[in-house]
Amino acid sequence: MSERLAPPAFASGIPDFAREGKPRDKGLTFATDDLALLDREYFAQIAEYADAIKIGQSLPLILERSKLVERIRFFHDCGMKVQSGGTLIQVAYKKRILPQVLERLKSLGFDTVEISESAAEIPHEAKEEILTLIRRLSMDYIFEVGRKDPGRPQSTSQLISKIEEAFELKSPKVVIEAGNGKAVGIFDAQGEIVWNGLNDIVGRFGPPSLVFEAPLESQRIALTLEFGPNVNLAGVPINGVLTLEMQRLGLTTETLGVAPPVQSVQGSPASKFIFHLIKTEHPIDQQTLIQRSGLPKRTLQAALSYLVEQGFVREVPDMSDLRRHKYTPK
Length: 330
Hints:
- The chain is built from twelve helices and eleven strands.
- It has 330 residues and is of the alpha/beta class.
- The chain has two domains: 29-258, Aldolase class I (TIM Barrel); 269-329, Arc Repressor Mutant, subunit A, CATH 1.10.10.10.
- The strands form two sheets. It has an eight-stranded parallel β-sheet with strand order 3-2-1-8-7-6-5-4.
- Helix 3 (86-94) packs antiparallel against helix 4, helix 7 (195-205) runs antiparallel to helix 10 and helix 10 crosses helix 12.
- The longest helix has 13 residues, at 65-77.
- The chain is globular and about 70 Å long.
- Residues 1-11 have low confidence and may be disordered.
């Protein structure tokens, strides 16, 4: 009789499936509070995986104060920051009650104020005044760009301009508005990602600087597969936080092949941008990289040298012209 082969054994049991703990600067999950009854046992399970909870619209103006304070205190006890929605600041600006609204957010326990122009434009000077008020209250802020109205979509160039302004105003990250997930921001009318526009945006700023609103699970899966487990995502339903964490870790059917994140490149911002372009458009030559990135030739060459030396990309011959090279991820 032939001997039966024993199943292979793990040297140290099941590996530890976990990402970097909080506070995080990458792989952020911003969940949306739907005002359902708070299940303390469930929140104890998701606390490590949700970085912030957003109470959106103008709800802080109409919800019963004592219950809202209690709710925010509960989120804090779970280790989650609480963020307001961008609509509230637009309402406060239009109605000329910004100081009062910001004072109310502070007194309620909000940690972060979202500043958005999803429905109404706010002049640059007014944004600076808003930030002055927020800083005086020792609160954080984050900008969101894009319009909610599918009938008035912003072009990629307009989004890029707004993102640039947000970073000039020292927003730590910039959220890209998605509305209900269709015909807004980086999504088309069917809820599919418009990759050309997204690549232009990411090629300019890099994935770590951006937070993508992705209300639909299919969108979160696509972005995780493209940018890796450390992509920053917002608009996540509270009951979808655990599923998203499994997707980030490659523990679901859809994300078994999840790629390493762009943030594994530890070099300069230019190196990260170029790595993303090579990853999405390989094989690609140096001239095309210059055109796509808008970087000076010297900066590009330094980034390529770093990526090749560190083993992130390979330099391969251009078969149409052996004097030139193309670049592809390893």
